[in-house]
Design goal:
Blueprint: E1 2-9, E2 12-19, E3 26-32, H1 45-55, E4 59-63, H2 80-96, E5 100-110, H3 112-124, E6 128-132, H4 138-148, H5 152-158, E7 160-163, E8 166-169, H6 170-175, H7 181-185, E9 192-197, H8 206-215, E10 220-225, H9 235-253
Parallel strand pairs: 3-4, 3-5, 5-6, 6-9, 9-10
Antiparallel strand pairs: 1-2, 2-4, 7-8
């Protein structure tokens, strides 16, 4: 069963989709999309993954961060901290569902959503974490883009800079250096699955190794998808990532 959900954060409506495997309380997973993305994601990756997880017996809540997708708010007002706040609220919403076992909940994130998921996992103490192409060091990924767009001078003049058709606001730039997912995860004791494409040109595969080093091999498993890009954009890569993540989450949560 697939149902539309809405919940509020800071007075703004967040749009979400809940996938329900049945009436009996079962584990749940919150999915966090990437930068400029939405709860469907590229080539319907989040839809396919959510349905596969639901078929495996897990409740799944995928949602649009404020300012993204169908949620209220303006993208230019988004920061890393607002997205972490949204993810924490989504975890509370999922746990409140009658079909969810609140003691068996995980969070999954893609790209910047992976960084958000990592921070939410540490702050909320969820039972498991899945990272797809996750950013470990935001300044490492972001500063080159900022320089290419004209740097801080444009931010100071206009309050934002343009990335394609998106306006990246001053608030986001100011929080880039203040959020450190590796430092936050150092105090979290749960298990994690780290998945990354070997040919990811958006977030270098080194970020996956940094997550593994922080979490240690005792608690984390690293899987490199050979030849894959940032969003695993082939049928084979997509299936590899979804199947692996489903199997891993079922084992950790059920």
């Amino acid at each position: 069963m697939q149902q539309f959900r809405q919940f509020k954060v800071a007075g703004q409506q967040i749009a979400a989709t809940l996938h329900i495997p049945g009436d009996t309380p079962a584990p749940g997973v919150v999915m966090c999309h990437g930068f400029t993305g939405h709860r469907i994601e590229a080539h319907f990756l989040f839809v396919k993954a959510a349905r596969a997880l639901c078929d495996a017996g897990l409740n799944v809540l995928r949602f649009d961060f404020r300012g993204s997708g169908e949620s209220e708010g303006r993208f230019v007002e988004m920061t890393v901290e607002t997205e972490i706040t949204d993810a924490l609220a989504a975890l509370d919403v999922l746990r409140a569902e009658p079909t969810v076992d609140a003691n068996r909940v995980a969070v999954l994130g893609l790209s910047l959503g992976g960084l958000v998921a990592a921070c939410a996992a540490a702050r909320d103490e969820v039972q498991a974490l899945v990272l797809w192409s996750a950013v470990a060091d935001l300044p490492d990924v972001f500063n080159a883009r900022l320089d290419a767009a004209g740097g801080l001078e444009i931010i100071e003049r206009d309050g934002y800079y343009e990335a394609g058709a998106h306006r990246i606001g001053r608030g986001f730039v100011e929080t880039v250096r203040s959020v450190d997912p590796l430092a936050e995860l150092a105090h979290w004791r749960g298990p994690a699955l780290i998945v990354h494409g070997s040919e990811d040109e958006t977030v270098p595969v080194e970020h996956a190794h940094r997550y593994l080093q922080t979490l240690s091999e005792d608690r984390a498993a690293l899987h490199i998808v050979e030849g894959a890009d940032h969003t695993f954009s082939s049928v084979a890569w997509e299936r590899e990532v979804i199947d692996l993540s489903c199997d891993w989450l079922v084992r950790r949560l059920r």
